[in-house]
Amino acid sequence: HVQLVESGGGSVQAGGSLRLSCVASGYTYTMAWFRQAPGKEREGVAAIDSERRTSYADSVKGRFTISKDNAENTLYLQMNSLKPGDTAMYYCAAVNRRYTMYPPLKKNVYKSWGRGTQVTVS
Questions:
Q1: Which residues does 1 contact at the CB level (< 8 Å), separation at least 6?
Q2: Are 72 and 87 in contact (CB under 8 A)?
Q3: Which of 28, 69, 74, 115 is the most buried (most CB within 10 A)?
Q4: In the structure, what pLDDT confidence band is assigned to residue 101 with cuts at 50, 70 and 90?
Q5: In 10 A of CB 40, how many CB atoms?
Q6: Which helix (H) or strand (E) covers residue 120, if one does?
Q7: Partner residues linked to 43 by β-bridges
């Protein structure tokens, strides 16, 4: 498994933007962002693979963009038009596997996890 380190979280006003980054210790084929708000289940936000196929949760489509720099083993999440409902701890996840369909947003398939970065929208 790879080690993952997230950065870029912070506090912003509604309508603002943030860009999250996740650096992996090695190459991994499929990566994703998850988030977890207090008292709620961890949910998938966006996923991407090395072919740049992507998946998004309905709640973030049109506002968030996931990208992956394969050469630098780095994952990004550009978050625009942020809402208070986006407030959560955001986690980077990875699994070195190609999926036949689009990269999954199910947390149980991911083998490596970062420690998270907090995003607060007021």
A1: 94, 111, 112
A2: no
A3: 28
A4: confident
A5: 9
A6: strand 117-121
A7: 35
**23: its two tokens:** 């650096």
- Label residues 47-65 b or e (16+ Cβ within 10 Å = b): bbbeeeebbbbeebeeebb
How is residue 10 written in tokens?
A: 């912070």
Q: DSSP letter string over 23-76?
A: EESS--SEEEEEEE-TTS--EEEEEEETT--EEE-GGGTTTEEEEEETTTTEEE
- What are residue 7's DSSP bridge partners? 21
The average confidence (pLDDT) of the chain is 96
- Residue 115 has which token pair? 């420690």
Q: Is the pLDDT of residue 51 over 90?
A: yes
**102-115: pLDDT as tens digits:** 999 999 999 999 99
Cβ(48)–Cβ(103) under 8 Å? Answer: yes
Check if the beta carbon of residue 121 is closer than 8 Å to that of residue 29: no
Q: Report how far residue 17's alpha carbon sits from residue 86's, in angstroms, rounded to the nearest whole number.
A: 11
